[in-house]
Amino acid sequence: MKTLTVSVVTPDGPVLEDSYEMVSCKAESGELGILPGHIPLVAPLSINAVRLKRENHVDKLAVNGGFMEVRPDKVTILAQSAEKPSDIDIDRAERAKERAERRLQSKQDDIDTLRAELALKRAINRLRVIR
Ligand code: ATP
Questions:
Q1: What is the pLDDT of residues 63-108, one digit of tens each?
Q2: Which of 24, 55, 92, 126 is the most buried (most CB within 10 A)?
Q3: Which residue among 67, 83, 99 closes a domain?
Q4: CATH code at 44?
Q5: Contact 117 CB / ligand 1 (< 6 Å)
Q6: Which of 81, 84, 121 most suits a substitution to test ligand 1, by most atoms within 8 Å of the C-beta?
Q7: Domain with 69 in it
Q8: 13 — alpha (psi -120 to 50), left (phi > 0) or beta?
Q9: Does the predicted model carry a pTM greater than 0.90?
Q10: How far apart are CA 12 and CA 25, in angstroms?
Q11: Cα–Cα distances in Å, from 121 out to 46, 56, 76, 91, 124?
């Protein structure tokens, strides 16, 4: 089975580097499924899960923004944050979700609203990846 090297890097350092048969993620332009031999591309990523498939196993990561660079034998994800399920603190994500929801319910200016919406998306993404 052909594989791709997948490397995920954030400002805090490398998160993962391993071989997989397929990478699925949500780019801003829509769902992408990357197999070995894919044409080179660069795509901005949304706040979403990245699924990494190998044999009968799927590894998931909660990725927050950034870019993906695809080459035929390699996928590099450079993200603002990326966590494996085992590194996600559920309580922290639940607190962040509640905080963002409270902010969205109270009347605030547009910048704070956008910020709270993004914080809510990050928290929901983390909670989805672990459940
Ligand atoms: P919080 O309000 O709890 O800080 P956030 O969404 O604002 O959440 P980020 O700015 O996206 O946090 O991330 C800051 C750093 O904290 C990153 O290194 C990220 O991986 C880590 N992080 C954030 N939330 C969690 C979590 N629930 N579990 C584990 N790591 C987290």
A1: 998 999 999 999 999 999 999 999 999 999 999 999 999 999 987 7
A2: 126
A3: 83
A4: 2.60.15.10
A5: no
A6: 81
A7: 4-83
A8: left
A9: yes
A10: 21
A11: 10, 29, 23, 16, 5
